[in-house]
Amino acid sequence: MTFPERPVLVFWETTRSCPLACVHCRASAVTERSPAELSTDEAERLWEEIVGFGRPYPTVVLTGGDPLARPDLSELLRSARDRDLNLAVSPAVSSRLTPAVLSEWKRLGVSAISLSLDGATPRTHDAIRGVPGTWATTMQRAREAVAAGLRVQVNTTVMRQNVEELPLFPRQLAAVGVNVWELFFLVPTGRAASIGALSVAEHEAVAQFVYEVSRYPRIVRTVRTVEGPFVRRVLAERRAGLPRTTSELGRKLSDRLARELGPPEGPSQLSPTGTLDGDGILFVGYDGRVTPGGLAPYPLGSVRSDSLPSLYRGHPVLEQIRARRFHGPCGRCPYRRVCGGSRARALAIGTNVLGSDPACLFGQLGVPDLVDAAAPTLAGDTHAESADGGR
User: pLDDT per residue over 112-150, tens digit each?
Assistant: First the structure.
């Protein structure tokens, strides 16, 4: 499944201003707003560009920094609603985010919000976020957002500081009414460039863990990954009964998840297809620059000078991404149609957005022949992608 005509999601980095100091911040956010940000009028024109994709319109995700740093946010939400755009907001959890704000967003047509939770304990999360008390506030805001009638998604960036806590998250999220969990596989960009990445084997262990979590739909209805598309290869392997690589971390995560949640409830609920940076995903920076994704800062153009639909549909790099014309193991992999590798990690580590994903096990093993056995499984799979786009 590819998305040649329109993306599923358009992310707009409303600002880079943010009151938090997260150690892994993609945007290297600062406290002050930049004069280079899109103005209110330019943001209105961005809505028109997104409408220009035609129906069904892409979902617009307002991210940052912290969108609440913009005094015109309510005005922009209202004008987007008037254009019948589907809206989601990814705010920073700070004193700006109040129950009154959440209720107003619901009235203004926001359908969902995403909150970041990077530790299953206050100590871990607050250390990563750089502000004491953020863990407790995040859990409280999640409850309040659910009560306001918003769909709530929790985002967790997987890193060495929190990876062993992952099995503790599902029950915590369920306790506050959250049943959508998105795991971000760390890409060394922005402040995250200084954080030690997981090894290839550890990335594989987390992908296998995601598969296991997806077998508990009553606790976590939807689990997805960002910059970890190889989880779809794991799904195909597990469905085909192929042997899987195990590691110490993998066994530890699996055993702890079983202790926390008991035996699996049924088959995996993972989507076998999904989006990829530049294929179903498009990102507009605070200054109007357009890139394949927020973690893949490959310059495509600018909304200040280019047509967004024309960039998405006709840029040669995006056409190659959608055709899966990659270099190295990703270009030869029999799973490239359903996976495609992280374009952001290929760019950040290999300096080539069309290169191979250095976190994938297949790149290390040289794409073993045994994966050909899964081809019939892939060819016969007709499940559709979720509406809000697993990556």
Answer: 999 999 999 999 999 988 889 999 999 999 999 999 999
pLDDT confidence bin for 189, thresholds 50/70/90: low
Q: How confident is the model at residue 386 (pLDDT cuts 50, 70, 90)?
A: very low
pLDDT score of 193 more than 60? no
Q: Compute the distance between CA of residue 29 and CA of residue 109 in angstroms, rounded to an integer.
A: 27
Whether 209 and 183 have beta carbons less than 8 Å apart is answered as no
**Residue 41 phi, psi (nearest 5):** -65, -40
Q: What is the 3-state secondary structure (H, E, C) of the chain?
A: CCCCCCCCEEEEECCCECCCCCCCCCCCCECCCCCCCCCHHHHHHHHHHHHCCCCCCCEEEEECCCHHHCCCHHHHHHHHHHCCCCEEECCCCCCCCCHHHHHHHHHCCEEEEEEECCCCCHHHHHHHHCCCCHHHHHHHHHHHHHHCCCEEEEEEEECCCCHHHHHHHHHHHHHCCCCEEEEEECCCCHHHHHCCCCCHHHHHHHHHHHHHHCCCCCCCCEEEEECCCCHHHHHHHHHHCCCCCCCHHHHHHHHHHHHHHCCCCCCCCCCCCCCEECEEEEEECCCCEEECECCECCCCEECCCCCHHHHHHHCHHHHHHHCCCCCCHHHHCCCCCCCCCCHHHHHHHHCCCCCCCCCCHHHHHCCCHHHHHHHHHHHCCCCCCCCCCCC
CA end-to-end span of the chain:
12
Nearest CA to 318 out of 292, 343, 349, 352 is that of 292
Residues 56, 101: Cα–Cα separation, whole Å: 28
Count CA atoms within 13 Å of residue 187 on its CB side. Answer: 29
* CATH number for the domain formed by residue range(s) 9-197: 3.20.20.70
For residue 356, give the amino acid letter. S
Domain residue spans in the chain?
9-197
User: Could you tell me the pTM of the whole model?
Assistant: 0.91
